[in-house]
Amino acid sequence: MASGEVHAASEAARWTYLDRVRTRPGPFTNLDSFNGSMVAQAMENMKILVIGAGGLGCEILKNLALSGFKDIHVIDMDTIDISNLNRQFLFRQSDVGKSKAEVAARFVEKRVKGVKITPHNCKIQDFDEDFYMQFQLIVCGLDSIEARRWINAMVVNMVDEDNEDSYKPLIDGGTEGFKGQARVIYPTVTSCIECQLDMHAPRAAVPLCTLASIPRQPEHCIEWAHVIAWDQEKPFPKLDKDDPEHITWLYQKALERAQEFNIPGVTYSLTQGVVKNIIPAIAATNSVIAAACCNEVLKIASNCAPPLGMPDANNYMMYSGNDSIYTYTFQPERKEDCPVCGNLARDLPVDPAWTLRELVESFAARPEAQLKTPSVRAEGKTLYMQSPPSLEAQTRRNLDKTLVELGLEEGQEIAVSDPAFATVIFRFKLKFKPS
Amino acid sequence: MTEIVMSQTPPILHGPSEKERKYDRQLRLWAASGQAALESANILLLNSGAGTVGAESLKNLVLPGIGRFAIYDEAEVSEADLGVNFFLDDSCLGKPRSQSLTELITELNPDVQGTWYPNEDVKTLDSLLSDSPVFTVIMYTHPIRPEQLSRIEAYGQQHKTPLVAIHSAGFYSYFQINLPGAFPIVDTHPDETATTDLRLLTPWPELVAFADELTRDIDGLDNYEHGHLPYVVILLHYLEKWKAAHDGEYPASYDEKIEFRKIVQDAARTNNPEGGEENFDEAAAAVLKTLVPPSLPSGLRKVFEYEHTDPVEQRSGFWLIADAVKQFYDKHKCLPLSGKVPDMKAQSKVYIRLQNIYKDKARKDAAEILQTVQAAPGGERVDPAEVDLFCKNAAFVKLINATGGGGDAKISKAERLRSAAARESVNHETAAPTFSPLSLLPIYLALQATAHHVDSPASADKILAAIAAQVPGAEKDERVVQAAEEVARAGGGELHNIAALTGGMVAQEMIKIITKQYIPIDNTCVFDGIWSRAHVLEL
Ligand SMILES: [Zn+2]
Q1: ipTM of this predicted structure
Q2: Distance A193 CA to ligand 1 centre (A)
Q3: Quick one: which pathway (chain B) (predicted)?
Q4: Neighbours of A403 (CB within 10 A)
């Protein structure tokens, strides 16, 4: 008994600073939803899911453990690489090669007494709705837009209007260099990640003819080596972007080509950066963005201050540290024609003279679609299916027909799907616009 | 003058070193030069108060490989520390906080040296400051005892050491950078899109001759050549035509530029298989952005107009070069050319020739400036690489803390605060300022009022009374009252998230100051964790 009391006293002492704020209302606290005496217990009972145990994920796990949460799960399928060590502070040189989720979970559990962290060394796509339903909140620290879109579609689809517990707030962070953003998504209430997709437009690809015949920049030479020379010469069975031998091969090829055209600037580091699409990342920015996310988690879980994402309130904070410090906190518009949370088809300007192939290929570059393997259907007919192979073979011949030849009309609706977002049907309304 | 020779032998094909691999993601931001600056820095953290924001700031500097750090912290690790500070655990209870923090933070990066104070040999802040090699930057956290603050401020003045004051309490925080003088930055890393300077309205003879050569028989070019004319050449060609039809004048007004753009658009061939020409599209799209007469950017104007009070500073490399660039500008009515050419549709050979024409001109401009620099007293010591870098970035050079370096007599802190309050309030006329909803000055005032509350937390009333003494009337403003209540709620305690967020911002700024890259804040950043917003104020 005595040791139990000592423990309780030490628990209270430990959370002195947090309790001052989370158990006592302040001038901005909404008193209708705040119950200070229940906060600590309520937070202890909550289950929080963290997606990603990388630069943001390490920070998020630390922040949640020191915000009074006791039951945290983390998903990450990656292993630790030496280039992680400049910011992923839960990992050491001796951890290189081990599972990020497992090492991160063990470290935080060891450092912060009383917190339980369950690691999942796998992909988010390996879990179904039942798994995600057990959490009260989901926090994302990802570097892949595809994974973000997937979990976004999952939480929006999970919403059941008759079940309050089916609304899972999604708190998402992202960084690049000195910049980043933190946002709170309340599925079907605020705009969702898919609504905001065009704010993260993909970089325009260099035209193939530039790579093949008129390179001008070091990047063109590197892309040539990556896209064309590799395919022609196949120096190794399969390109492994993490294998220095493979990168060296590409670097050497790019360098030869650059010398042929007198183009300066091809380096090993640039080669690696272009081929792997490396985004610069530092501890400081991760610290800012992860903490901005977890600050919202604390507010949502405790009601001790108004969180982002309340009705008619801002839910997106953009942060930039290149030139002084600048934040812009705003409310991106929820889109009625969002394929995930809206219910209208989206206008799609197309040239009726396009072949179906041109249409299919155009979805990758459209900022609001970004679909790499789209299958297309129109009312009553299947136009092109990427899989299964038998259906692909049957529909392949449509690819060279024009939209008009396929009988498509102005104003007609088409449905596009992509295995990367299995649950989402992207509905588009054709708007003919000859170019 | 050094001649640049394109090396025909390939550089040695070696992969990156172990260190380059570890720091790869940050070397892409500040390169080897920035990394070297970080690694030779020696910083001090004077940690007091709840102490988390200092530890978090330090973590974000140790990870990227700062050279050395020292922590001065008189506290012993308590239970309350364990709920907020990640770099302390149960085994640290009762030990000196500086020792435990140093042990658990140095563990993050074996390249970094950390030491802790007070210890057996160095027992006071005074002896630490007088016995240590000069610190590159000092960070200190609030609340702090007044005598320690004055000791640190005196040290900063004596050694010209930048000081960073940090205060994190509850949902609020601020930090303030106190630089010892005017702080110029050359390597500001502007956005790529902002750096295009093509001089289309002031072309030099080599560029004119090149454009002329390619367009002499523009209508006789085959479709491939016509469709691969670089847009710079297209614009120069049609500008010449425009001038011939407009008494030698360039399109100047917006309407004229729109008219000119139409001419360029209409000149594209459409009877080809593509039904248009991308290079002409690029040319038309570039009209409004590139047809601008040379002007002096505000950042550089500040540099040119800066009045020196410190003769040592005046003889530094930066100021000698700035002076030479000013002479160049006065003489040529334009800045030295950066030499950068954006990518554009063109044949490889043609593009490379164009690029070299710009590079040659940039080299000539830089050589002229180097000559001026070397003719000035002390100029022979200036590194030509520094001149090159300045010329490449001339349009984006920035001067921070321009007023702090001299000029006006030192105004008192309280006076500066009162004038900031006047600036930030929407109502200047009445005695009681009403702060604009966007200003976070109320938060700064409330935190500042508890700057020295080391032992006991302050009530909202006490905070408001302290604010009233500094900025009379402010205590009546509703936003100030709310900020005071919110600060009182925290009772001097930190929320881990706000400490971590603030530590991230502080580390970014420390990195900018130490590497002299990117642009630091000038000079105070306030964060509001209730509405998730930052505000930079000059105080
Ligand atoms: Zn949506």
Answers
A1: 0.94
A2: 6
A3: Protein modification; protein neddylation
A4: 23
